[in-house]
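// run 5 | inverse folding | seed 20
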């Protein structure tokens, strides 16, 4: 039985008894490690349950063994013809975790409670029908037309 979990922005394939190296955690050695970010679980009969995005009810538990540092990585920067050289090293912190248990609890079937909806009809007391008055829309008056005779007179020179 194994599981694929998500931790520190990465995905890990874990099985019971594995020792996994994660990025540095704030927990002390001997404390419990637990995650519910299980993306997939393979049962003993190799049936793979894939979550969307996580498998509901699945959990991975472990124990923190120790904290440590990785091997040194040499960082060397150089620019040609400029007499620029920088050399420094880096050691990444990590935490070792031993996987103790992978559990998959299938989510309990949700009981659907059928709510009985009661239709209530409220009858309004009957009153005599009121006459509805409809106002007529007033028609817009057309714009006054300019007479063309005035324009012709204006264009003629005075003699």
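// decoded
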């Amino acid at each position: 039985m194994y599981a694929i979990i998500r931790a520190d922005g990465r995905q890990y394939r874990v099985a019971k008894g594995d020792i996994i190296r994660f990025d540095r955690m704030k927990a002390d050695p001997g404390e419990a490690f637990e995650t519910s970010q299980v993306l997939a679980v393979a049962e003993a009969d190799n049936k793979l349950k894939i979550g969307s995005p996580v498998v509901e009810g699945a959990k991975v538990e472990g124990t923190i063994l120790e904290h440590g540092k990785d091997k040194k990585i040499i960082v060397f920067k150089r620019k040609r013809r400029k007499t620029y050289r920088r050399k420094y090293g880096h050691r990444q912190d990590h935490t070792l975790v031993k996987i103790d248990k992978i559990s998959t609890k299938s989510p309990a079937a949700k009981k659907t409670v059928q709510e009985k909806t009661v239709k209530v009809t409220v009858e309004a007391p009957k009153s005599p029908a009121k006459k509805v008055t409809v106002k007529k829309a007033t028609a817009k008056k057309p714009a006054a037309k300019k007479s063309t005779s005035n324009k012709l007179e204006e264009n003629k020179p005075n003699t």
